């Protein structure tokens, strides 16, 4: 399954159709564990040369959002399920998933986790049920610029209901 397909985003290539503005998100950096930028030192499969996204420690504004394309409304048979792997630094990282419906200006936070997880890859699946068009926003935040404090994301898959 290549990273350029609609339903899977593994960041091995820059092409990820679910995220049309990936190149316009300077605070997210596409890298692998050998980049010399601190943890994570591998992707969620333990592969040191495989790519993922992490917050760039060089950028002072320590938060970044990643916004999907517009998804069509879900129906009873086809809810939208999104599975993703995430890494949150144990001191000050926060990772959030938000939902923005087309009739609303604000992003509704539907899932979040922060730094009590001990620097490891975890996986989560969220289910979205929306009667109108929507976008999903993945946000990372780091409160301190200490070495090794980061938020990372890898292998986002979208079910056919998305």
Which characteristics define this entry?
162 residues; mainly beta; Jelly Rolls; six-stranded antiparallel sheet
Task: Explain the overall architecture.
The chain is mostly beta strands and 162 residues long. 0% of the residues lie in helices and 41% in strands. It contains no helices and 10 strands. It has strands at residues 8-9, 28-32, 51-55, 63-67, 80-88, 93-101, 108-114, 121-128, 134-142, 151-158. Strands 1, 2, 3, 5, 8 and 10 form a 6-stranded antiparallel sheet that branches. A 4-stranded antiparallel sheet has the order 4-9-6-7, with no helix packed on it. Strand 6 and strand 7 (108-114) form a beta hairpin. The relative contact order is 0.27. This is MALR1 protein. Pfam families: MAM. InterPro entries: ConA-like_dom_sf (IPR013320), MAM_dom (IPR000998), MAM_domain-containing (IPR051560). One of its GO terms (cellular component) is membrane.
Q: Ranges with pLDDT <50 over ≥5 residues?
A: none
Query: Helix count, per DSSP?
Result: 0
User: Structural class, from secondary structure content?
Assistant: mainly beta
CATH topology descriptor: Jelly Rolls
Biggest β-sheet, characterized? 6 strands, antiparallel
Radius of gyration: 15 Å
Can you lay out the helices and strands and say which pair or pack?
Elements: E1 8-9, E2 28-32, E3 51-55, E4 63-67, E5 80-88, E6 93-101, E7 108-114, E8 121-128, E9 134-142, E10 151-158
Antiparallel strand pairs: 1-10, 2-3, 3-10, 4-9, 5-8, 5-10, 6-7, 6-9
Domain MAM: 7-162
Protein name: MALR1 protein
Pfam families: MAM (PF00629)
